[in-house]
Amino acid sequence: MDANGSAGASRHRPLVSVHGVCVRFGRRNVLDQVHLAVHPGEIVTLVGLNGAGKSTLVRVILGIIKPFSGTVRRAPDLQIGYSPQHVPRDPIMPMTVRRFLTLGAAASHERLDAVLQEVRANKILNFPLSEISGGEMQRVLLARALLRRPDLLVLDEPLAGVDITSQNELYRLIADIRDRHGCGVLLVSHDLHLVMAATDSVVCLNRHVCCSGKPRDVLRNPEFASLFGHDLSESLAIYQHAHDHRHDALGEPDALTPRANDSH
Amino acid sequence: MFEDFFLRALLGGIGASIAAGPVGCFVVWRRMAYFGTALAHTVLLGIALGFLLSVEPIFSVFAVCAIVAGCLVLLERQQYLSVDALLGVMAHAIFAAGMIVVAFMERVRVDLIGYLFGDILAIGTVDLWLIFGTATVVTAVLWMQWRNLLALTINQDLAAVEGVPVERVRLLMLFILAAVIAVGMKIVGMLLVVALVIIPAATARRFVATPEQMAVLSTLLGIISVLAGLFASLRWDIPAGPAIVMAASICFAISLAVPVRSSGNSG
Fold first, then answer.
1. What's the pLDDT tens digit per position in B53-69?
2. From A44, A76, B20, B103, which residue has the greatest number of CB atoms within 10 Å?
3. Chain A interface, best mutation among B27, B156, B158, by max A CB count within 10 A
């Protein structure tokens, strides 16, 4: 098991961290004094309403946008696997799943098979990209990210376009991948129910970081409640409680690594 | 067997198709058809400047095309006008400027129709060298940058994270499109050059499963159209450029009747 990742740094040093980052488009402040860090083996979820700057922050972390001020630090030789929010699947582009996967990195047939097996989408290697379902597309994007053997997975809305039953499954899958590879995961999501169930820490963004911490603590934060509404905040607290029990009772066989070992 | 001029026309058409086939695929995939049309409008100014500076028109056309393409990329960053409207403004402004410059030049005015509609039967030996030189450069660039170009076409951010030098590859794409337009205008003229680029690619789509297959088939269809158009032109004494584009269009129409191949689901 290559649980240590290859970033080399100690478990307590973050894979990526941003400090006091501000981004401006024109005269508008899109991000204001944002702090965030992702450690190896940790799932950090970025939540926030539309227009809160989530995707902008992701693009800063990926190095696509240079911040107006503030610093972004990445571990040396950090390999990032990225799954963008929206990859248009235009039928004018003849593209099989196999060809799509090898666009990011060359890979042997065996490795492609293994990676698709890992994301549980092994029967679609020769399908045209435009003919697979939304859930399968998210798995294919995840597979393309994994082919790079990433230290850090950055997944922008990985549950978008996925029906509700598969959402749960996909979320388990992401947690399993984290357990197996020990990589850090930065998730962007607006679906709070699923987020709260399996994340290690939540960062709630509203141009600035309005609150952050463990899901339980964030839910009780008055600023979070005022942003998402008190009712939702309360129902989530109940949901999370219920999920904890179910999770303990099920004890997924392929997620053997206890998460506590990774984060402490 | 054939007259020399006809042989040169055949070779020139084949050379242009080799360059235009794969580039046409990117124009179709990236929805740059209107961009290509706008670039083709700059051809006239390129030709006029070529005469003024006594350089081979292929070079001056390429230079003007490339400069305009670069300006468009810079202007795309402003938020005020849509790219679509911007292209419309630029294309016609530069076309008008070209017409005005040409009006001052006695020598060029005679050939205006030739440049608007192409004069493939007047291709000389020097033209052939230029066409095949350009086709070689374009093919080499495509060969070396193929994966980068494809990755960029699918998703720019993903390509950037995976190490593709996004800005450089985008510029390269525009330069090879400019080169193809400079070559294609010799064959079918500036009004039809985009047809030579787009129609074979659009026809090829229905028969292929991967981008590579589409690039190859699009090149073959371009060559077939050139051959068919030239022989039709010889047989029925019709203008060669429009005959080539008609041949390509007939291929496209026939392809619509063929059921779409649902690629490789079984394998």
1. 888 888 888 899 888 88
2. B20
3. B158
